[in-house]
Amino acid sequence: MTSHDGGTVRPVLPDEIRIEGVVVLARAVHQDPRGLLVETMRADDQTIDGGRFRMTYTSVTVPGEFRDKDRWHLHARQTDRFVVPLGEMILALHDGRAQSPTAHRLEVVRMAGPPIDTAGHPTKRDTTTFLVTIPPGVHHCIGNISQAPFVLQNFPTEYFDASDEGRVPFDTLPIPSLGRGFSWDLVDRTPASPGA
Q: Residue 148 in 3-state DSSP?
């Protein structure tokens, strides 16, 4: 579970997520002096219905900005499939499904690709990033508490449909482990250690 220490929430790594139905797949990042290459999602990713593509989008979030800054985002039908090929994103997840074995669980996750570096990497090296699936009914929000922009790619299972989009204000949804609603000011701002 996400660590709550001294009034802050310490982000965990994607492979530490324990919310029921959230699937995490490692993705190789191949870097060299020219830049990088990441296989973000494949049709044969059977555990996440990889053959089901409806649309793809890429977004960039600048330092200090949050998508849905004061509210949770959720879907009734759509599964989101997030990967961060560049930079560092904080993903907060809350299991809002009453019948889930992990109902009400909060996880704050540090999703990091390599830093944005226009010079590439001086030698060939491989690192890892992760693709994280977010099933319907799991509240989520993203933010940038780092010093550089991040790139997010999403491979949702459905076309955009405003009627499938939901928003829940943080202050109307108490998180049992926090004793209050989620807030970005609770997230530990300590920079990730190199290689994390």
A: coil
Q: How many helices (H) and strands (E) does the chain have?
A: 0, 16
Side chain identity, residue 7 = G
Which domains can be identified in the chain, with CATH numbers?
Answer: 9-183 (2.60.120.10)
pLDDT values of the chain reduced to their tens digit, one per residue, 196 residues: 455 555 678 899 999 999 999 999 999 999 888 888 998 998 888 888 888 888 999 999 999 999 989 999 999 999 999 999 999 999 999 999 999 999 999 999 999 988 766 666 778 888 899 999 999 999 999 999 999 999 999 999 999 999 999 999 999 999 998 999 999 999 998 877 654 4
pTM higher than 0.85: yes
Amino acid at residue number 42: R
Q: Which residues of 119-145 are buried (b: 16+ CB within 10 A; e: fewer)?
A: eebeeeeebebbbbbbbbbbbbbbbbb
